[in-house]
Design a protein that fits this description.
Layout lengths: L3 H13 L4 H8 L3 H9 L17 H10 L5 H8 L3 H10 L6
Pfam family, one: HTH_Tnp_IS630
Protein name: Transposase Synechocystis PCC 6803 domain-containing protein
Length: 99
């Protein structure tokens, strides 16, 4: 599968070759709005820091759970100020059992 950057390059090249957005979306299988958005931008590179940042380190969660193993995950989440779902997901990533 082509990377996002490669796809943007292909779209930009086709736009420069005077292809219509309809032709581009049929050739590459991208959304029409993606073609228009790429066409408006001068630079096809992503902006620095545009991705989401990790909110909580897995090791911090692991230490908190090991420090108080009998405390419920919901209580741990409330104490850490994060979502219960984040705790559950982290435990699964660390190889632990959730239920």
């Amino acid at each position: 599968m082509a990377s996002e950057r490669d796809t943007r390059k292909k779209v930009r090249a086709l736009l420069d070759a005077r292809k219509t957005p309809t032709e581009i979306l049929r050739l590459l299988g991208v959304a029409r709005m993606s073609v228009y958005c790429i066409g408006k931008k001068d630079n096809i590179e992503r902006k620095r820091g545009s991705g989401s940042k990790a909110k909580v380190d897995l090791q911090v969660i692991k230490k908190a759970l090991e420090a108080e193993p009998l405390k419920s995950m919901r209580a741990q989440a409330k104490d850490m100020g994060i979502s219960h779902t984040t705790i559950v997901r982290s435990v699964k990533m660390l190889g632990g059992r959730v239920w």
